[in-house]
Amino acid sequence: MIRTRHSAVTRPLQYLALAGYMVFLAFPLLFLLIAAFKTTREINSPNPTFLPKGLYWDNFSEAIDKTRLVTTAVNSAKVATATMLITIVMALPAAYALARFTTKLRGLATGWILLSQVFPFILLIIPLFIVLRQFNLIDRHVGLIAVYTVWSLPFALWMLRGYIAGIPVDLEEAGAMDGASRPRILWSILLPLLAPGLVATSLFTFISSWNEFFFALVLIQTPERETLPLTLANFVGAEGQVQLGQLAAASLLATIPSLVFFALIQRRLTSGLLSGAVKG
Amino acid sequence: MTVALPALDTVPGARVRRQRRNRGSTSDRGDAWKLVLPALLPIIIFSVYPLIRGIYLGFTDAEAGLNNTTTFNGIENYRNLRHYDLFWKSFKIGLTWTAGVTTLQFFAALGLALLLNLKLKLRWLARTLALVPWAMPPVIVAIMWRLMLHPKSGPVNKIIRELGFAGDTNWLGSIGTALPAVIVVGVWSGMPQTTITLLAGLQSVPDELHEAAAIDGASTRKRFRYVTLPALRPIIVAITTLDLINNFNSFALVYVLTAGGPGGETMLPSLFAYNEAFRYGHWGYAAAIGNVMVVVVGVFLIFYLWANRRGMDK
Predict the structure, then answer these.
(1) Is A267 in the B-facing interface, judged by CB distances under 8 Å?
(2) DSSP H or E segment with residue B202
């Protein structure tokens, strides 16, 4: 191997740089974790120790009480699940059509998918606000789900199209040769092969809705209907100014679903997600 | 998944069928429409129509109230914007933020991607860490960095105090430090996507190219300049354009970090437009700001097309 010809100086320097990156990336996370277990007095003391003196779990219970964390988490889960299901049901047939048929639609759809990702949200939200107000859907979860579905549909469509295009069309044709009907081909040949891509796309849609902030900020007004990011952002301004430990604890709890998701797809992320979504 | 393939390829007639399908017979085309329609209708109602209406609203005097009539007023909004100091200030801040975050993000991500492409120990840990900011909701990233930069209890000031300085800077609350601080947070939260994309690009550079160059006696630096960079070029152009657009449109991070303060020092265009629309109820005005943002995004896209074409000519 010619590539491994490195002088004695470069290797240590490379490790030093890597360590620097790791500190930059990990330190804030570590601090959040530690702050969640510190008492308010510990956090505010002029000479704080890095590690907490003990594991102060009360931050979690108090944060859950004050931010109504359970209620808002249920709200978020409800909205994100509904968005995910509707998005997939609508995107799947369209993705199949875009992957398997060469029509003018493909160019048009691709153009729109790309365009819809780059437009400033402000141009979308004002007209949507007007439309939703006409249907009396402001400050309701149904309205938020409608907006999220439309917002995540283009990318879900794009991802699924990539995954379907990766499945050889020969398999379907073989099924047709054997006399299977089209629904049966789709159900028993395509769907099993598509399962990993379907799961990835569903999770991606779920997490995008779970994390979304801007639309929720504009559309939801009643505290009981807030989603997680909204509640947390409000907590920053109110109680969170003083109760830093509770703020950290609540943030930590709210991150868990996304972290689990990324842990699950981590290995596919470099290869699967990118090539799956990009493949022509 | 591909195991069954060779056998299937020998099925007589399969190839013929595929050729026919690729041309798209009329019945297939009808099928395509039927399949696309369930996704198409909601997209048109909730996405195409609002966008077009949104652009149109930028040329009206629309207000938030329920019973206001909206009238077309041409370019009046833009004439007013031209004399509005806050508008110019906000776009200047927006471009500083976009350029700052995108540039720093790119070099930081390129460095990290190059390191992660080497066979170093603990690479798996660094790769996982590089992904975590991506997994975090922007609101929580902002909360976390508010804790980090907290003037009294934050570790950043504590470290500065340990080093013997005053360490009482209110990073997010003082004019002069707020924008740079926010940019650092932007880099932290945006690095993963750029890093992973560049890493994927690096891994697709064929080893043979490097080996051939090395045999010809090219140094590491020269190989990077003449082998890696040209191969990476399309990916660099694409991810940089994407970063420029994403950063320019960014909202949640800065909204939670500073809400545009202190004194409008971090008032990005998206925050400025949000305030105009939902704090003061000036919808037409806010949509006009949105339209100007579209023009800026359009410039980024033109940059992309131009850079791409230049790459192809070479």
Answers:
(1) no
(2) helix B178-203
Which of B109, B307, B107, B103 is closest to B198 using CA atoms? B109
B157–chain A nearest CA distance, Å: 11
Alpha-carbon distance values, A127 to A134, B58, B78 (Å): 11, 11, 19
Query: In this structure, are residues B252 and A214 in contact, taking their beta carbons and an 8 Å threshold?
Result: yes
Cα B277 to Cα B239: distance, rounded to the nearest angstrom: 31
Distances in Å between the Cα of B174 and the Cα atoms of A28, A46, A216, B186, B191 are 21, 21, 29, 18, 26
Q: Does A25 touch chain B (CB under 8 A)?
A: yes
Instruction: Note the pLDDT tens digit of each residue in B235-290.
Output: 899 899 989 999 999 999 999 999 887 888 999 999 999 999 999 999 998 999 99
CA distance A177 to A184: 13
Nearest-CA distance from B14 to chain A in Å?
Answer: 6
A126–B54 CB contact, under 8 Å: yes
Q: Whose structure tokens read 């991802």?
A: A159
In sequence order, the 6+-apart residues with CB closer than 8 A to the CB of B1 are A167, A193
On whether any CB of chain B is under 8 Å from the CB of A210, the answer is yes
Q: Which residues of A touch B28 (CB under 8 A)?
A: 101
Instruction: Evaluate whether ipTM surpasses 0.85.
Output: no
Q: Which two tokens stand for residue B14?
A: 């399969």
- What is the C-alpha separation between A173 and B4, in angstroms, rounded? 13
Confidence of residue B8 (pLDDT cuts 50, 70, 90): very low
Phi, psi of B121 (to 5 degrees): -70, 155
* CA pair distance B237, B306, nearest whole angstrom: 10
C-alpha atoms less than 13 angstroms from C-alpha of A61 in its C-beta half-sphere: 5
Give the Cα separation of B199 and B188 in Å (integer): 17
The pLDDT of residue A46 is 67
Most confident of A100-104, A125-129, A142-146, A185-189: A142-146
Q: Which residues of B150-179 are buried (b: 16+ CB within 10 A; e: fewer)?
A: beebbbbbbeeeeeeeebebbbbeeeebbb
As given in the structure block, the two tokens for residue B119 are 């066979």
pLDDT at B185: 96
Judge whether B101 and B187 are in contact, CB under 8 Å: yes
Q: Alpha carbon of B8 to those of A58, A175, B5: distances in Å? A: 62, 10, 5
Report which of B103, B95, B106, B46 is spatially closest to residue B295, judged by C-alpha positions: B95
Q: What is the predicted pLDDT for the residue at A41?
A: 74
The structure's pTM equals 0.83
Look up residue A38 and give its DSSP letter.
Answer: S
How many degrees, rounded to 5, is the angle at CA A215 between CA B148 and CA A160? 100
Provide the shortest C-alpha distance from residue B176 to chain A (in Å): 22
Helical segments of A37-168, H only:
40-44, 58-66, 69-100, 104-118, 121-134, 141-165
- What SS3 class is residue A128? helix
Distance CA B242, CA B239 (A): 5
Burial class (CB in 10 A: 0-12, 13-18, 19+), A96: buried
